Amino acid sequence: MMQLQVLLVAGTHGNEINGIFLFDQWEKLPLSINTHGIKTCMVIGNPEAKKAGKRYIHQDLNRSFHEESFLSINSSILEGNRANELVNLYGEAGENPCQIVLDFHTTTASMGSCLVVYGRRDADLALASLIQNQLGLPVYLHESDQRETGFLVESWPCGLVIEIGPIGQGLLNSRIISQTKLILEALMEQIHQVENLNFYFPEKLIIHRHIKSIDFPRDTEGNIDGYVHSLRQSKDWQEIKKNDELFSKLNGEIIRLEEDEPYIPVFINEAAYVEKNIAMSFTKRELWDLKKEWKQSLIDLVLQK
Questions:
Q1: What is the CATH number of domain 212-287?
Q2: Does residue 246 carry a pLDDT above 70?
Q3: Residue 70 has pLDDT above 80, yes or no
Q4: 66 Cβ contact list (under 8 Å, min separation 6)
C-alpha cells in the first residue's frame, strides 16, 4: 500500500514570503514543526518569481493549472511550465505522488486567517470542517467565477489554500509566520487523526459562498477614479446591506450597495487583485450539514483505499 504523502507549497506567488521563510527555517531545523509522522514534500511554488521579488514572471501560477495546458508545454510561459513540472513530480500519477496539497498564501486584505476551497469536492470540505472545528477559521468557497480558474490545489485529489493577512507584499511579520506554523501543524494533526480513525467531525460547516466580484469605479477611459470607502476598508467578513458605502470619489461622491440582498465582502482592496479588476468579492454566509460522503471521501483518501 502506498504511503500517504502531503505536498506543502509556499511561494506560489513569489512576493508572499512568510511561508517561504518558514519552510527555509524548517529545513535548517527539521524538528521545529510537528508533522505527526506524516510524510511531506515541501516546495516553493514559483522559485523564479521568488528570486525576482514578484508575484509572477509571465502569468499567475495559481491560474496556470488548466488540464488543457498539461497536454502541451509552452516554453515561453514560465508558470505554465512550472505547473506541468509540479504535477509531473507530485501529482497523483507523478514521480513522487502526493494525495493532499496545502497551499500557503498571504494577503494584503484584512482577512485574518482563513481557508479557501474551490468547488465542492467532498474531501476538501471534510478537511476544512476539521480545521474550522479546531481553530474556528472561516471558509471561503470560491466557485461560479469563470474568470478565475486553474488553481493549484485543483490538480490534487484534496487540497486547501490557507490565506493569512493582512501583510504587505515582500514583508516578513512574526504574527503571519506564527499563524502559518499553527495552521500547518493543525492540518497535519487532523490528517494524522483521520489516518488513525481517531477524529471528530462537527455536525455543521460554516461556508462563505462566493457570489461575485466587483471592480473599482472607473472613468470613461477605464481608469480607476474611486477608492474603497473608509467604512468598508479592512472590514472583511462584516455584512453589508443596501445603501451601505462601498467607494468614495475625490469630488465627494459616494457609491453605495444598490442591491436588496445583503452580502459579506472578502478580499477588500487586495493589492494583487487590482490587475484582475477586483476591488472586493461578495459572499453569502451559509450553514451546511456535514455529509457522510465528505467524511468517507477523506478517510478513503488518507487510508489509500
A1: 2.20.25.160
A2: yes
A3: no
A4: 149, 150
